[in-house]
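Feature request, filed as a ticket because there's no other form

It would be nice if the structure record came with a short human-readable summary line next to the tokens. Right now we just get the raw output. Example of a typical job, pasted below so the devs can see what we mean:
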Amino acid sequence: LAVTVVQGSTLFLYDSLFAIHVTSLGHAVRWAGIAMVPGILLEIGVMVAAPQLLRRWPPTGLLLAGLVAAAIRWGLTAVVTAPLPLVAVQALHGLSFGAYWIGGVELLRQRAPEHIRASAQTLFFSCFWTGALLSAGLVAALMDLVGTRGLYALGAVLTAMATLALLRVMRRSVSPDPGLLATQRGGEGAHSRGLTTPPRKQR
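Raw output as currently delivered:
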């Protein structure tokens, strides 16, 4: 959920600042509108392909793809200045939002008990809005200090940290419990030495 808050906060940077960012680079504001087109088209494509994607990738894989795409997107948005490449970068919205959203919804569907599944999904949606509110405060505090390029760079750093956090959670979720593993190995060793207790004969 904390990772989703970060993802929501960085997406708010795009929604609230991109037009300002484009004009601060000396380009006409229409480029901000043009930049929305490839991202929306790719997002629609990702949503339509959701069943195929979920057959090929686990939900956590889609979450990870969304975070990686977001980190790349915000990092490039911070450094790219030419209008056409800047528009092309925003095509990553299809993954940074679309893939992440599909993965999150599916993960909750699989893991949340049925009687609280709707509440779990509501919490997931709320994390996006919580991130947006936090991002609004961040923008207000840092805009004059670092400008839009600095804020997008900060978004890239935060998303990269969220990606590492998700990877750590994924590794822990697939790692065997050390105590259980030791118990299993001990049992296997005793069995190999003939130390297992034979079954008692019934009288």
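Something like this underneath would help us a lot:
DSSP finds eight helices and no strands in the chain.
Residues 53 and 181 are 33 Å apart (CA to CA).
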